[in-house]
Each structure stands twice: as structure tokens, then as C-alpha cells.
Amino acid sequence: MTKDLRSLDVERHLPAAILAQRMDRFRATLRSASIRVTPQRIEIFREVAGRLDHPDAEAVLRGVRARMPSVSLDTVYRALTLFRQVGLVAARRPRRDSVRFDGRLDSHHHYVCTRCGKTWDLDAGAVRVRHEPDACGALGTVDEARVEVRGVCRACSEGGAKKKRQRKRGGGA
Ligand SMILES: [Zn+2]
Ligand SMILES: [Zn+2]
Q1: 164: pLDDT confidence band, cut at 50, 70 and 90?
Q2: Distance between terminal CA atoms of the chain?
């Protein structure tokens, strides 16, 4: 598992073949719901579906604007709400003040950075969950268990160390 976590921030983008599958599902889902597949919606979905860090709406906007400068935050919010309603993305709340979007729909776990809120997927097999049959059995059956691993990501811990050094030299905020 340690190895998986270390490679997470290197692999910021999804493999092209999986992204292509998600784009196909996106077009099919919108069409069957009679929702227009517009260039803006395509780019907004591509940004969410193609990233591994579960971007929030502002991060989606920044990414889409690099390709489509006219897109507004309002458009991004409306598109994301629509995608949630038709089940194309899931919303996660790693911290109280942020909502991040997930283009992966199968059962999986998450690693959440408690500082920046960035969230990465962990395959269901990457974390072993020990069921507590006694505790769960009293409540009902167990179909799946989702784990949220929380910590401080490498970018945040390295950035924090850099800031401290700058402060010592009298610079920085
Ligand atoms: Zn972080
Ligand atoms: Zn996820």
C-alpha cells in the first residue's frame, strides 16, 4: 500500500483507455436522458473523469479554462450538478468546506489529505478491511466496506517544510 500511495501524486491523470470508456459512458448517459452533449459539458466531464485527485469545482474550472477560456464557474457548477443527478459523478466531502467530484463509480477506497482536501482512489483490493461480524451482524448484512484513509499528502508536507524554511530566512507569508 505504501508503494501505491507514493506513486499517487506522480500519476495525476487517468490512463487514456479508461478515460475513453468514461467519455463513452458520458455521451450514452446524456443521450439516454435527452440532455444535449455540448462542447462545454464534454470538457467539464473530461476534466473530472480524467483526473485522479477528485477536483473541486474551482479546480475543474481552471483545468477547463486552459482549453476553453470562456467557461464560467457557474457553468461548471451547473454541469457538475447535472452529472451528479444522472449518476455520472459522485460528490465527496473530504472536509466540511469542500465538495470534490469523483468520476469513478465502482466500489473503491480513498486517501484524503486533511490539509488540501485532495482525494485519491485506492483500489478495493489495496486496503484490506476486516469485517466485524458481531458488530455488523446486529445491524444487518454487509455488502461492501469503504475505507477513508486520512493523512497529509506529500505535496502538503513538503510545501509546509519549505514555508518553514522561508520563514526562518525572513521571507514568505
Ligand atoms: Zn495535501
Ligand atoms: Zn474516488
Answers
A1: low
A2: 35
C-alpha of residue 32 to centroid of ligand 1, in Å: 38
**153 domain-assigned:** yes
The number of helix segments (H) and strand segments (E) in the chain equals 7, 5
Q: Residue 1: beta bridge partners?
A: none
Q: Say what the pTM is.
A: 0.77
Q: Is residue 32 part of a domain?
A: yes
Domain of residue 162, CATH code: 1.10.10.10
CA distance 16 to 41: 19
Ligand nearest to the CA of 159: 1
Dist. CA 160 → ligand 2 center (Å):
26
CA 28 to ligand 2 centroid distance, Å = 21
Q: Ligand 2 centroid to 35 CA: how many Å?
A: 25
Near ion ligand 2, which residues have CB within 5 Å?
Answer: 102, 104, 121
Instruction: Report the C-alpha gap between 112 and 30 in whole angstroms.
Output: 30
Q: Amino acid identity of 138? A: A
Q: Hey, what's the cell of 92?
A: 465527496
pLDDT value of position 6: 45
- Nearest ligand by distance to the CA of 111: 2
Domain count, the chain: 1
